[in-house]
């Protein structure tokens, strides 16, 4: 089953200057959280992800629908 906030993806791999497309399917997952909870989330993903170096990218939330941002704060709880 695919999580609702994800998409199937293929990776481009670079081994010693040779670029190839990975034969394995991956799931691109978008997770939203608050700044206060980010460090714990990153540590959890890094610990349990099967890759030695998973792709974890932090993007700032610089704005958005106020109702959604309030919901995000209320549902993520205190760190």
TrEMBL record:
<dbReference type="InterPro" id="IPR004323">
    <property type="entry name" value="Ion_tolerance_CutA"/>
</dbReference>
<dbReference type="Pfam" id="PF03091">
    <property type="entry name" value="CutA1"/>
</dbReference>
<dbReference type="InterPro" id="IPR011322">
    <property type="entry name" value="N-reg_PII-like_a/b"/>
</dbReference>
<protein>
    <submittedName>
        <fullName>CutA1 divalent ion tolerance protein</fullName>
    </submittedName>
</protein>
<comment type="similarity">
    <text>Belongs to the CutA family.</text>
</comment>
<dbReference type="GO" id="GO:0005507">
    <property type="term" value="F:copper ion binding"/>
</dbReference>
<dbReference type="InterPro" id="IPR015867">
    <property type="entry name" value="N-reg_PII/ATP_PRibTrfase_C"/>
</dbReference>
<dbReference type="GO" id="GO:0010038">
    <property type="term" value="P:response to metal ion"/>
</dbReference>
């Amino acid at each position: 089953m695919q999580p609702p906030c994800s998409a199937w993806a293929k990776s481009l791999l670079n081994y010693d200057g040779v670029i190839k497309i990975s034969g394995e399917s991956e799931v691109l997952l978008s997770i939203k959280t608050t700044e206060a909870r980010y460090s714990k989330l990153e540590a959890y993903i890094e610990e349990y992800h099967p890759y030695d170096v998973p792709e974890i990218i932090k993007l700032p939330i610089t704005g958005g629908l106020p109702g959604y941002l309030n919901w995000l704060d209320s549902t993520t709880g205190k760190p």
